Amino acid sequence: MKAAFARAKLSDVSAERIDEYKEARLAEGVEPATINHDLRVLRRMMRLAERKRLIPRNPFLEVDFLKQGNLRMPHILTFEEEEKILAVAPPFLRVLVILILETGMRSHREALALMWEAINFANDSIRVRESKTRAGIRNVPLTARCKTELLRWRKMLGPEFSPFVFPNMRAPARPRNDIRHGWAKALQDAGLDYFWIYNLRHTFASRLSAAGVSDLFVAQMIGHSSPGILQRYAKAIDEYRRDAVRKLEEMRAEHAPSRHAPSTFINSENPL
């Protein structure tokens, strides 16, 4: 828990971030009982912060503890489910969903904290700097679709408005902190049962594996590889990154519906 929250400000500890922590720990094979114990410690801290008026509201009011003895399996999106979500998502959420699905970035610590200066459109890559581990600091290639969506979004809310790709609309100098309600509404409008947005990251990894990308490089793409391996094989890994993205795009092309209509994203007047 220290590694996940030690550097976080109290105002940054949102329900979304806590959910991401639960998912990450489950993915590491940690028992739900152990995770719940850590969450109770954090909940006591947040209750104290609320009593002292250091935060306006305890985020644990929106957090569910894990059911013990019954591990929650990751929800891997089908391409049909993805289309349903994108069809109803507001512009900012549409960009965020595509970003995570096609880069494997962590939803809160990496994607929501992303700054425009970290995106190299000329080189089709993102430099992930805000990560919970040293291995998580990495370069991530952009797919053609992800690049297109980011460029469209940049025309609406670019660096002139905020240094962050997903800014807090009331305080543009800060990133958007919590998307839980927007995500829940998008799932409801799409006619889907609720699942954590962190599962988009699982979907990215699953699709890479299905496309034939090796486990080693899937782990590297999502920031789980050993820093030592990255240093020894940096050149080869860079080539595998590009190959992985090509395979991901080929898989998407095979599943893309022929009747897919052009996005009306640009015409939206409300980026929220």
Structure notes:
The strands form two sheets. A three-stranded antiparallel beta sheet has the order 1-2-3. Strands 4-5 form a two-stranded antiparallel ribbon. The longest helix is centred in the C-terminal third of the chain and has 22 residues, at 234-255. It has two domains: 2-62, no CATH class; 79-267, hpI Integrase, Chain A (Orthogonal Bundle), CATH 1.10.443. Mean pLDDT is 83; it is low at 226-234. The protein has twelve helices and five strands. Helix 5 (91-103) runs antiparallel to helix 7. It has 272 residues and is mostly helical. Helices cover 50% and strands 6% of the residues. The chain is globular. The chain has helices spanning 2-5, 15-27, 32-51, 79-88, 91-103, 107-112, 144-157, 180-189, 199-210, 215-221, 227-232, 234-255; strands at 119-120, 125-128, 138-141, 167-168, 171-175. A hairpin with a 2-residue loop joins strand 4 (167-168) and strand 5 (171-175).
